[in-house]
Amino acid sequence: MVDFVTGLRCRECERPFPAEALHVCDYCFGPLEVAYDYERIAATVSRARIEAGPRTVWRYRDLLPVGHVLDDGGEAPVDLGAGFTPLVRADRLAAELGLGELWIKDDTANPTGSFKDRVVSVALTKARQLGFKVAACASTGNLANSVAAHAARAGLDSVVLIPHDLEAAKITMTSVYGGTVIAVEGTYDEVNRLCAELTSERPSWAFVNVNVRTYYAEGSKTLAFEIAEQLGWQAPDHVVVPIGSGSQLTKVAKGFAELGKVGLLAAEPAVRVSGAQAEGCSPVATAFLEGKDAIRPVKPKTIAKSLAIGNPADGWYALEVMRKTGGSCAAVTDEEVVEAIGLLARTEGIFAETAGGVTIATLCKLAASGVIRPDERVVALVTGHGLKTVEALTGTIGCGPTATIAPTLAAFDAATNFEEESPAR
Amino acid sequence: MSVIVRIPTQLRTLTGGAGEVEIEGASVGEVLKALDVAHPGFADRLFDEAGNLRRFVNVFLADEDVRFLDGLATPVTDGATVSIVPAVAGG
Asked: Hey, where are the domains in chain A?
């Protein structure tokens, strides 16, 4: 199996490690990063080679840590078709916000309805290569859906641990695939800690976001790769990314940088990266706004459950990216999240889950304060489908029928004020 | 006070492979220092130059992150469990 991975390296103390199922440095506990031979990638990769690839994340396989799974006669990736989701020009939303060129990266279109399919497809492909037979994870819901589905596809057993109070759809969308689903009476951070400890006790299980996390996280780079390719191999000026653990935001920035490094873009692009959090769980936004380096963990309380991580593993790195790129960070209320879900749906026809509402509400806030400017080409990441979190809208304006009537013309006329041509708004 | 300290895989080379060790101490900080005396090498891995817990080390007393309590000064009770857990997980 050909690949461009030279090993793993501690992001803190730079100690080298072999490319195995390791995620933290056993000296300083820093996160391990995949190290690539970028010169060899640059000599192999090209826009044409990518454009001839599948319409999934696997078109970027040269920049993913799993070898040439498709064209070396080896095993196919664990693949449900994640990635290459629509990049939608959002002129109507832009007009509402006083912005110029605005795009939505619509990751609701992934196989299980969230961006997690990108990271899981990469993680389980790598896990299978490493010989694992069981796929596991700690999840706020979206990851659970994706791990259960991809494990079923790959014929792996799955063990998924979730907080017990998740949205109903996220539980159904996990259990339907037939794996083991354990609801834990605790917060996500408690589930996460349990999984971190379980990894020591169940070394033969691939916890995608624990012992396989180094590889898993690399899957989020494909968001940056796709955005650049879909913009005609150009980088945007500004991206808005939701922050749970901070991993996605960090990897989106890394993705843009790599495109320059391997020659797919003329130079390393200057992309401002801004982060979005819910007020009820905003440890990263708080540190950013207070100008601090240390992130104080919090006990989350927000409807944006997929972002409810009180102790974010990559929070520090997310801060670093936002500061270095000239981005910003904001936290929004649950009411603003619900309003933003409606705004995106009304203006662009995209139904986002609460995390998407956090992103759009933050976009609104940063546009209103002038941080995001009308002369910028802006991309907002909508990372999960609204059907997963319908509870968040229950009882809010516009979430039920306009009227309920008897099946007669008279009742229809009585209930509506429509002109013949078009309904009045 | 005698407490149980749970050791993650990454540090079990220091305990001869043991996942749990029994250690004496009155506070979380004292327990971790005594751990280093019993099994030399822990202090280097857990603390930075200033003597604070490294950024990516989480320490729990029973179910609570000590950062929500009094940090290293948090008192421990006899028979309590102190867990050392790598912070880099999840998301």
From this structure: 87-113+218-393
How far A51 CA sits from the closest chain B CA (Å)?
A: 30
Q: Does the pTM of the predicted model rise above 0.90?
A: yes
Q: Which of residues 252-291 of A touch B (CB under 8 A)?
A: none
B57 CB neighbours in chain A (<8 A) are: 29
Give CATH superfamily name and number for B2-86: Beta-grasp domain (3.10.20.30)
For residue A130, the model assigns a pLDDT of: 94
How many C-beta atoms lie closer than 10 Å to residue A422's C-beta?
Answer: 7
CATH entry, A87-113+218-393, from 3.40.640.10, 3.40.50.720, 3.40.50.1100, 3.30.200.20: 3.40.50.1100
A312 — contact with chain B (CB < 8 Å)?
Answer: yes
Quick one: pLDDT band at residue A420, thresholds 50, 70, 90?
A: low
Nearest in space to A333 (alpha carbons), one of A373, A287, A392, A288: A392
Residues 6+ apart with CB under 8 A from B14: B7, B39, B40, B41, B42, B45
Q: Is the pLDDT of residue A102 over 80?
A: yes
